Amino acid sequence: MSLPPPPPPPQEEEIPELEIDVDELLDMESDDTRAARVKELLVDCYKPTEAFISGLLDKIRGMQKLSTPQKK
């Protein structure tokens, strides 16, 4: 008596790559504008994006553009 074949391994979820230009977001006037832009970029994302966008905007608030020389 033979055993049935093992089930196939679970398929990994296909995750599309996405680039978000932080410098572009830093150039925007307000968080509302930034949030709208990120929502545009994530339009094809089927998972909830609100927490991600909120966290991203929190991090961006403390950043400066890399192209701007830092003053000592």
Automatic annotation (TrEMBL):
Source domain of life: Eukaryota
Keywords: Cytoplasm, Phosphoprotein, Protein phosphatase inhibitor
UniProt-annotated location(s): Cytoplasm
Record-level GO BP terms: innate immune response
Gene Ontology CC: cytoplasm
Described function: Inhibitor of PPP1CA.
Name of the protein: Protein phosphatase 1 regulatory subunit 14
Organism the protein comes from: Panthera tigris altaica (Siberian tiger)
